[in-house]
Design goal:
There is one protein chain. This protein is of the alpha+beta class. It folds into two domains: 68 residues, Orthogonal Bundle (434 Repressor (Amino-terminal Domain)); 108 residues, Jelly Rolls (Sandwich). It is 29% helix and 34% strand. The protein has five helices and ten strands; from the N terminus they run αααααββββββββββ. The strands form two sheets. A six-stranded antiparallel sheet has the order 1-2-3-10-5-8, with helices on one face. Strand 2 and strand 3 form a beta hairpin. Helix 1 crosses helix 5. The radius of gyration is 16 Å and the shape is globular. The mean pLDDT is 88.
Length: 188
């Protein structure tokens, strides 16, 4: 199943690039990713990391959720999304698991995501996919170090961080166990 998702994701990334009339070099320059990495991704030779998808989504001005929803799901999401039907994506390289609790939809401006980072997992994003994207990060279990444009926030279970994303961010689990958190995302 993972291979099927990776191949659909690869095809969608290529479709978006071609639809904009961009070459691989154009996308590489906009995303800050090497041309060879993008080429290998579009041929489904590599599984994308969360950081790589973040860079590509930022180049398109899309959220990662929107890209993954197009690849994973239905044209019209149901009003109730049962736990067994929630889409889960794993970045094996970083130790990040992402569950789309309430999938995005073109007619809606918000969504809810559950994230789990394994011990010592570390994900850095150079820029938000959409400038001014509003996030509420609520730690459910464990400890999360969230850095926003150089400001470090150490969040424990029950803590909630509200912010608008405008620059680089980093999520890190200082360990020793996993950290589980919910992210409410609202488009500007």
């Amino acid at each position: 199943m993972r291979e099927h998702l990776d191949s659909r994701l690869a095809a969608r990334v290529a479709e978006l690039r071609v639809a904009r009339g961009w070459s691989l070099d154009d996308l590489a320059g906009r995303a800050g990713v090497s041309r060879s990495t993008l080429s290998r991704l579009e041929r489904a030779e590599i599984s994308p990391t969360a950081s790589l998808l973040g860079r590509i989504c930022a180049a398109y001005g899309w959220t990662m959720s929107r890209l993954l929803a197009e690849v994973e799901g239905e044209a019209e999401p149901p009003a109730v999304v049962r736990a067994a039907d929630q889409q889960v994506w794993r970045d094996q390289a970083s130790g990040f698991t992402r569950r789309s609790v309430s999938p995005p939809h073109p007619g809606l401006r918000a969504e809810l995501i559950e994230g789990v980072l394994g011990p010592d997992a570390d994900i850095a994003y150079d820029a938000p996919p959409v400038a001014g994207l509003e996030q509420h990060v609520w730690v459910l279990d464990g400890v999360l170090e969230f850095t926003d444009e150089g400001t470090r926030h150490l969040l424990a279970a029950g803590d909630c961080l509200r912010l608008r994303l405008r620059g680089a961010t980093r999520l890190r689990n200082p360990g020793p166990g996993p950290v589980r958190y919910a992210v409410f995302v609202a488009l500007p």
